[in-house]
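Hi P.,

Sorry for the delay on this. The queue was packed all week, but I finally got your sequence through. Input first:
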Amino acid sequence: MKREKIKQEHYEFAVIGGGMSGICAAVAAARHGVKTVLIHARPVLGGNASSEIRMHICGADENGHKPNLTEGGILHEILLKNKSRNHHFSYALWDLTLYETVKAEPNLTVYFNTSMTDCMVEDDKILSISCFQSTTEYKIEISADIFADCTGNATLGYFAGAEYREGSESFSEFNEKHAPEKADNNRMGNTILFKALKKDEAVTYNPPSFAKKLTEEQLKYRLHSKFHTVDASSAKDPDAFTRASTGSNTNVDYGYWWIELMGEGDDFVGQYEDIKDDLLSYVYGMWDHVKNGGEHGAKNYELEWVGMLPGMRESRRLVGDYLLNENDIFENRIFPDSVAYGGWPVDMHCANGLLDFHILPSEVYAFKGSYTIPWRCYYSKNIKNLVMAGRNISTTRLALGSTRIMGTCSVGGQAVGTAVSLMKKYNCLPRELQPYIGELQQIILKDDGFIPGVKNEDKKDLARSAKVSASSFEDGYSPENVINGVSRPTETKENAWRSSGISENGEWLKFNLKEKKQISEVQLTFDSGFAYPIKITMSDNRRKQQRIGVPPELVKDFTVELISGGKSVMSKSVTDNIYRMCRVKFQNVMCDTVKICFNKTNGAAEFRVFEVRLY
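Then the structure:
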């Protein structure tokens, strides 16, 4: 007799896909009191950043070229937590950090190894989704008020009948400078990464029978060893440069992002397994070439790990009320309803990936500064209760070349999760949130997000009207900076207080309020060294850019003291801090002065604070 294991559950918010955007969306919503479920098809979180694929997280800082655009918020919190415990780039510890992050939220339920198989739609609203958890054999029916498609492939939207796009728009549609004259179905492909380790002795390599042979002639436009150079003159567009032909020559330990295949035909997602098989044959064939096809500096190298789950760059893009386009990016567009931002170049890969042997593997259109992404790109045009985050948001293909980067996907995810909490507050659908965008922007900033052109204008923040003083400060780093509304460096101002060294008794900031007020929370945003990357990575070159442990700039130990009439009425100390943003809670204490005494950093010779808020 057939027996079925069935669960039926209801949540206020259901997030499908546990990549970085899904994690940030689910955690943000849960922290703001939304009963949330995260459905993830894999055993580990992170998507392309997971231990199964191992692509390091890039973002608007463009690998350190624009450090002031480094993503803050939940993503930065996760990276700092990982940095505090994971000194040698262990992917097991990275898995732990992501797992611990979602499991710490009481309002968040997580289903691993759970695939969405169908959804029920009525009157252009998703009512429920059907899922199957392979490890438990449970069929799970999830109903929710709002659903988020964070699948990358826009799978939920596709099942629900949401409007979507694939391939390139024609030039005539948006007048994008680098768009083709006619629309086409070109797309960026999938990649399998590998990691090799250098041994003390020579290591032989015998390729598997299915490995494809590659020649130096076929690879002349693909940088693949420290002895190899590439002539960039083959670029199709003089405005473009390519990551394959700029900078120092590459090592053979980690690679190669350009082992990339698109498959054939229109159903890119449906060819995933066939593409994986082809990718494996080229990865092992490439290693055969590096080891046995001439001098590539790989004599002592041995394969340590080869992925079995290809990372995807592009598939479907859901259509919202606005499609971000290339012009928005190059013009550094600031939208009135902006909720996220980007800064990565428009990074487009050649139409046939590795098989386009005669041209460079990518063309990259760089620009100065950043751009914003409007709320209208984060909800479906025709499915009323569907939001999305990740590479499947509402953009043209050229804009996708920048927005697909995981750092940008993550801050979009946090914005979406935060927005859902306001939908709950105002009992509205995603499109109906427009009147509350200002409130949404302020919450994102309060949670250590960043939106270019938007400053802290929170009327509840008592620090904004306080008189600020300090024990000492460096020129250009006055104490008033901590209430100027910007919590990171910009091109024109540092926006931070720095003490002039560290005295024997520490240093302090003092906030004199206009009158006695109840204080329940003191929020501090510290300098976490945006100029230095903290990403998990397999690349030795990227690892060498980093420092061991948490950033030394971070304040480690401090005490918050609440004072009334010159007398201390309450104080709390924080030790061993590892985070950029720290909140100290009180039970509604009446006071007229808040004094923060800083006792120790994680290594820096002065204390550095970007923002203080008082509530």
